[in-house]
Amino acid sequence: MAAGLAVTRLRLSHFRSHRGADLAFDGRPVAVFGPNGAGKTNLIEAISLLSPGRGLRMAAPEDLARRPERLGWKVVAGVLAPDGLHEVETWSEGERRQVAVDGKQAPQAALARLLRLLWLTPSMDRLWMESAGGRRRFLDRVTLSLCPEHGTAVLGYERALRERNRLLRDRIQDRGWFDALEAQLAEFGAQLDANRRIALGKLAATPPSRAFPRAELGLAAEGARDAEGLRAELQAGRGRDQAAGRSLAGPHRDDLEAIYAAKGMAARLCSTGEQKALLISLVLANARAVADDFGAPPILLLDEVAAHLDADRRAALFDEIAALGAQSWMTGTGPEPFAALGARAQRLHVADTGGESRLTMEGE
C-alpha cells in the first residue's frame, strides 16, 4: 500500500479552546487522549477543515473562534500529499472561511484535489436510525472523497433548489424562471446522482474487512435520474410542489440504504453495537477505495472510536489502520485503549488549564 497522506505540522490560533499550539508529527497514527471537555474533538475538528465544507461538526466559521476574545481563528498545517509537502492555511475573521495553499489563496475545492479526509464521530452512531438527510450527507462525503468534482455538483444543485423553493413559496408564476432553474437542477442533479452511484460501486468493489461486518449499500431513489427525465419531472410537478411550498422530486429526496450482509438484515434493525461495527467497516472500505483511487490512503479522524469496542475489536481496528498505512487521529479519555498500538502511534495528551487546552506529546 502506498504511503498515506499526513499532517506533519499543525499550528492553531484562537481555535475554540485552543489559544495556540504548534506541534510536529511523523505520519504515524496519533492517539489523542485526555478528560472530557479538554479539547480533543476541537483538535480533530481543526484538522477536518483541511477539507472542503464546514468540518466534522458542520459549524459556521464565526462559531469556531475562541471565546471570549473572538478575534478570528487560524489553522496552519504542513501536509504530505502524493506530490510532496505543502502548507495549507484556513482561517476566518467573520462569516467567511478562507483558504490558502502554499501561500496563495485558493477555493475550498482545491483542498479536495490535494488531500482526502474521512471521519467518524459519536453523533454518527445513530446514522441508520435518524433522518434520510443525515445519510445523504454521509453519502455525499463518501462521494466527495472519491469524486472531487462532486462538491461542485452539490453546491450547484443546492443553490438552484433554494431558488426554486423560494419561487414556490412566493407563488411566483413566471414560467421562464422555473424553466431556467429546472434546467440547472436537472444538470446538477443528474451529475450528483451519477457520482453517488460511482462511489457506491467503488465501495462495493473493495475487499471486505477481516474484523468488521460488510454492509451492502444501495440508493433508494424515486423517479428519473437522467437530466432530461428529471427536468420533465420537475416541470410536471410544479403545481404539486407549489401546494407543498417545496420541491418534492429530485436527488435531495434520496436515501442511503444498508444491509448487514452476513445476516441479510437492514442496518436500522441491527443492535447498537452492530450499527457501530457497520459504520467502522464503511469508513475502512472508503479508506481502501480512496487509496486505490487517489494513490494514497486518506487521513482518518476517529472521535471516541474505541469507546464501545472490546479489546479484540480495538486491536483489529488498529491492525487494519496500520496495514492501510493511514495517519489516523483517534481520541479517547485515557491512554489505555490505545495500548495495542504500541510503537505504531504517537501519543498526544490534551489537558484543560482553566478553559484553555494544552497539548503535550508523550514519550517523544
How would you portray this structure in words?
The chain is of the alpha/beta class. It has two domains: 1-116 and 296-364, P-loop containing nucleotide triphosphate hydrolases (Rossmann fold, 3-Layer(aba) Sandwich); 125-295, RecF/RecN/SMC, N-terminal domain (Glutathione S-transferase Yfyf (Class Pi), Chain A, domain 2, Up-down Bundle). The protein has helices at 40-48, 109-114, 132-146, 150-169, 175-204, 227-236, 238-244, 272-294, 311-324, and strands at 6-15, 18-24, 30-33, 73-81, 84-92, 98-101, 104-106, 117-120, 215-220, 255-260, 265-266, 299-302, 328-332, 346-352, 357-362. The strands form three sheets. A six-stranded antiparallel β-sheet has the order 2-1-4-5-6-7. It has a six-stranded mixed β-sheet with strand order 8-12-13-3-14-15, with helices on both faces. It has a three-stranded antiparallel β-sheet with strand order 9-10-11. Helix 4 (150-169) packs across helix 7 and helix 5 packs across helix 6. The longest helix is centred in the middle third of the chain and has 30 residues, at 175-204. The model has no long low-confidence stretch (mean pLDDT 94).
